[in-house]
Structure formats: C-alpha cells, structure tokens
C-alpha cells in the first residue's frame, strides 16, 4: 500500500466539512453509480430470499438489544410530478387509501409479533408517495395503532419524521402532526421558479412553503428539512440563484440538493418532460457549484452526498462525533438500529439481511391475504459484505477510514485484503481525491463531491451482472 508516512489522518473537526468544487475533475469523473443507501445495493437482492428468511433474522435478535427504526410507505399522491422516480400511485379515489390502511395494519400486526420484546423504537419515518395524502383522522388512527404494538421512545429522545407536500396541508394540519408525535418535518420544494414548476407539473407558491415552515416552527418541530432538485427543465443559474435566496431566507435546519436523473425509459412520467427544456451538462454543473457556494456561505455544513445542515443540527454533530450513519432514508443519527419497514415496496434491514416488500398493491395484498409477510426479495449478507459495508459506511459518513483500526476489528490486513483495490485508490490519490497514509484513507475537500466514485472502488458487485435487469433498475450519475 502506497503511503505518505509523514501524514496522519485528520481528526474530526469543523475543517472536515470543507469542500472544494473542481468542475473539470467532476466533469471528467462523473459516471453512473450507486447511492449506497445500502450495501450490497438493492439491485443485488434476489427472489431466493423470502419471508421465512426475514423471519429467521428477526428471531435471532436478542430481547432488549438494538433499537428499532420503523419506516412506513404511503404510496398515494393526488397529482403527478413529472420528475418523480418514487414508487407512487396517482389517484383522487380516497377509498384506495382506506383499503391500503387495512392491509398495512395487518402487516404491522405481523411485524410487531416478530419483534415483540426485541427493542424499543427510536426512529420512525413516513415516506411515499405523499404521507399527508392520508387524512388527519387516518394518520392519527394509524399512529395509535402502531404505538399499541411497538414500544416507542419518548419524544425527547426519539426521532419521528414525516415527508409532507405543502400543497396538501394547512397550519392546523401541521400542528396536528406535531400533536400526533412527529417531531421532524421534510418538505418537498424542488424549485421556486414559476416556469420550472409548470414544466414539472408542481405548482407550489413560495408563500405556501414559507407558511408550512412557519407553522412547523410554531408547533415545536425539532428539525425542518427542504428538498431541492437541480437539472429540472427550464432551470438555469439565474433561476437557481433566486430559489437559493428564498431557501436561505426560510432558514431550514437541513437542505438536500438532488441531481435530477432523467430516465424516461424507466419512469413514464418523465416522458412528459421535453428534452429540449433540460439544462445541458455544463449548466447543471454550474448550478451544483452555485448551490455549494451559496449554502456554505450561508453557514450550512456539507454532510455528504446531497445533504447540508446547520452546524448545530444533530446530523452535523453526529458527523463530528463519528456517529453518523447512512440507510435507506439517507443520512441518520441512529446508527445501531434494525430497520423494520412496512408498506408496498418498503425495504427492511434486520440482522445482516435486507428484505423488500412486493412492489405492486395487487401482489402486496395477495401475500397478506395468505397470512404471509409480503417479502418479495432480499439478501443475506456474508462476511465480505459486512466488511465492505463497514468501509463504505465510514467513507460516506466520515470522509475518512482508519485502516489499522478496521483491520484489528475485522481480523484482516487491509493492504492484503484490498490489494486489488489499491491501484485504483492510488490513481484517485494522484487525482487529488484522497490521501493514503500509514493510518488509512482521508478524502480531500476536492474528493468529497465524488465520494460515490471512491466507494465504488470497494463494491465487489459493481459492473457485474445484476439480479435485477438494467431495464428495471439503473444508477444515476454520481454528480
């Protein structure tokens, strides 16, 4: 292993959040690759893994052991956003939600029986679709149902979040969500420009978003997050500058800035976006640079990937403390948990296994009608998977890897085990993405935006035939 013996891995500090935007390097190195919300990635799941395998993993958990993280997927939306790549169902027929909730409760019963006495719920996330598609009464009833079957940590220590569409709520609904137990809120914004909003069929006036944020603060939500997307039709640096000014003025605790991946061959709704309206690659790159410059100047810390947070936010503190984690919802402060996910297409991560539910309502309902957990596919990790997941997690969260400590913990010689990977790392070091030294790997400020590229070096599956055909699953660009 090539090292620089006079150089040591930098301690965690505010300087670890520095980021350097090198447009030429990014343009040269950007490629399609995983986001590493899991390792192995979801396209490696197989239908050989079924509900009994998942149940076996749950039974291996010790009573009172690791905490639990619950995820609930609500797939319904009232209207179609053309850019969306989520698993969603567009409908104004509210009866569909009534039927879905009945089946969802039946799955919750089965999951709760599996995990009875295993651990306390310290994290809950409602995603979709649009979770606030559910009425206030339906949401309250569902939460009461879950609390009767799982042991939830108190509000002061638990992290209970929900994604909302500001177009579907008013201030009273937001106050009700807080009373129902949610203490974190994520708002989809994407862009404030009127023309961009019309081009993606999501008309959401600035005042509507600001009113939702104000109501959330008044209701006592501990954290408010905004999602933005760059690369949408009719976007340019002028429109992005205006949007960023408005976002900074709204002062959310966290901001996510996602790269729009235009894949109409996979997502039919994206065919409604005109190719000629999409910004070209240099414009997209300029918008990314603008986002980084504007948000860091406003005092936000670059957490990693697409995420920014205020320095006093729990995500930023967790990164400084070395306790940051990454899961299917992105970056998280709760590292040592098993994730139990309910609803159509939801993915659980329990005791070294991944299990994904059926993706269609029909298949999801049919499995539950048989009295079965609706697991369609998954994967049981082996020792090599655990090791590589450890490496990727640390790089994604800490931008550093102590290879000596990892070797001692895993009983390996890092240089020998990862000998095939070292030449690629050395090339990246020459490009200025990382430093290799006697203690390990440190990602440079220039390399942090390309962290997915660095992690791909350790992905033994990348580039090999997939369990899920390319036509059904495709990676986005790393930048």
What does this structure look like?
The protein is globular and about 60 Å long. 35% of the residues lie in helices and 20% in strands. 43% of the residues are buried. Residues 1-16 have low confidence and may be disordered. Helix 3 runs parallel beside helix 4 (136-147). The protein contains 16 helices and 21 strands. The protein folds into 2 domains: 14-38 and 383-462, Arc Repressor Mutant, subunit A (Orthogonal Bundle); 42-340, pyruvate-formate lyase- activating enzyme (Alpha-Beta Horseshoe). It has helices spanning 23-29, 51-60, 95-114, 136-147, 171-179, 194-199, 206-219, 237-250, 281-297, 314-321, 361-369, 383-398, 403-410, 414-417, 422-430, 451-456, and strands at residues 32-33, 67-74, 76-77, 89-90, 121-128, 159-164, 184-190, 223-230, 254-259, 301-304, 307-309, 325-327, 330-332, 337-342, 347-350, 353-357, 375-380, 400-402, 434-436, 440-443, 476-477. Strand 15 and strand 16 (353-357) form a beta hairpin. It is of the alpha/beta class. The protein has a 9-stranded mixed β-sheet, with helices on both faces. A 3-stranded antiparallel β-sheet has the order 15-16-17, with helices on one face. It is found in: Cytoplasm. S-adenosyl-L-methionine 2 binds at residues 83-85, 129-130, 190, 202, 227, 261. Residues 62-298 form the Radical SAM core domain.
